[in-house]
Amino acid sequence: MSRTIASLRADEILDSRGNPTLRIHVTLESGVTVSASVPSGASTGENEAVELRDGDSGRYGGKGVRTAVANVEREIAPRLIGLDPTSQAEIDRVMIALDGTPNKSRLGANAILGVSMAVARAAAAAVGLPLYAYLGGAGARRLPIPQMNILNGGKHADNSVDFQEFMVVPLGAPTFAEALRYGAETFHALARILKRKGYATAVGDEGGFAPDLGSNEEACELIVEAVLAAGFAPGRDVAIALDPAASSFFVEGGYDLARSKQGRKTSAGMTELYRSWIDRYPIVSLEDGLAETDWDGFAAQTAALGGDIQIVGDDNFVTNTAFIARGIAERTANAVLIKLNQIGTVTETIDAVDLARSAGWGFVISHRSGETEDTFIADFAVAMGGGQIKTGSACRSERIAKYNRLLEIERALGKASVFGLPAALRRTRLAKE
Ligand code: PGA
Ligand code: ZN
């Protein structure tokens, strides 16, 4: 059949941090060739699927991916040639079995995911559909509200801010294109404010500014100031989302706000801190407010704050249905961050989304801090229909590529496109006010 897989190739390319990653090329019998590139995180959850690195200190400080490239071409390719790319679940199952480990550490989750994504793209091309329509069906027409990371700290920057990400959420915009404008104009207003105050305007890994602020809280104040300066109403037009990535400052059983010199806090102390912020700033979503091992703390936090804001789990769930199921049973969040490379195949990522959805939870399709120009997650967000994406600031082309793809999708859908608060955000306090 002309649409079966004829060949599979892998290249070692660089990600947005200049570290090696994989680009996979799939060619079908028909001659159609597509490719997909794999992202890479910095503040990774402990239970993520394993990104295979060469460990050869003579190349890229050991971060080369030639072994993963070889695994694609020598081990995976022979098993997939001749298969129909629309058999995504079957192809992903074959790769999981071939790997044989629980965390994809033998072949590498980077090798497996790259193939999985490229296969999805090849299938879409084979059936003549855009990727979002192939993966999401005829109902895929909801554009996501972006969580745009405009101030960075933690592991994504070298500054005095402990919390990793302060994001703007243009939830009051009428369309995705307008949401992007609200976010970009707020980003530009923030640049002017930072300059005026004598702060640096260099950006971190996801394109947000990374100034040496006096405290974590000052970030919220500056964002509100920027939203107002850009002519928007804080909370109504543009809200705030946080990803402290608290595992990265969880030291010996406590939360150590060392960078900002704010001392140590207990789990309950952190939740109190967030409560005081929620009461003062238009916060709509909090991701990884506690460490990935702090399951009891997360349950208490969800009980305390989950009626008012979205509580998102990232490092604790790692897009893995086993951990998400535990979170649902123990009520440790009300939403999940979804990152394809945390679990390593498209099929398992869809399973994670389905599980979140079946529990009535929200979900946010996300980039990694190390990205490429690949726009897979833009289509994936529309296909899954959860109405939320997190893909960085209003600068750096690896982030903007996703936004530009979403603009393209919104335009292609025309009047059929849908934009607005998904259920997960409709139940937040801000939406009800
Ligand atoms: P990472 O950061 O890609 O470095 O893990 C993103 C996040 O924590 O959400
Ligand atoms: Zn996160």
The biggest sheet, with number of strands, parallel, antiparallel or mixed sense and barrel status, is: 8 strands, mixed, barrel
What strand order characterises the main sheet?
A: 4-5-6-10-11-12-13-14
Approximate strand percentage: 15-25%
End-to-end distance, in Å?
Answer: 57 Å
How many extended strands? 14
Unreliable residue stretches: none
* H-E order: EEEHHHHEEHHEEEEHEHEHEHHEHEHHH
Could you characterize what this model shows?
Helix 1 (66-80) crosses helix 2 and helix 2 runs antiparallel to helix 3 (109-127). The N and C termini lie far apart (57 Å). A hairpin with a 5-residue loop joins strand 1 and strand 2 (20-28). The chain has helices at residues 66-80, 88-99, 109-127, 131-136, 176-196, 216-229, 267-280, 295-305, 321-330, 340-343, 346-358, 376-384, 397-413, 423-426, 429-432, and strands at residues 5-14, 20-28, 33-37, 145-152, 165-169, 239-243, 250-251, 254-257, 263-265, 283-287, 310-313, 335-338, 362-366, 388-390. The chain is α/β, with parallel strands linked by helices and 433 residues long. Bound molecules: 2-phosphoglycolic acid and zinc ion. 2-phosphoglycolic acid binds at residues 41-44, 243, 245, 314, 337, 366, 368-369.
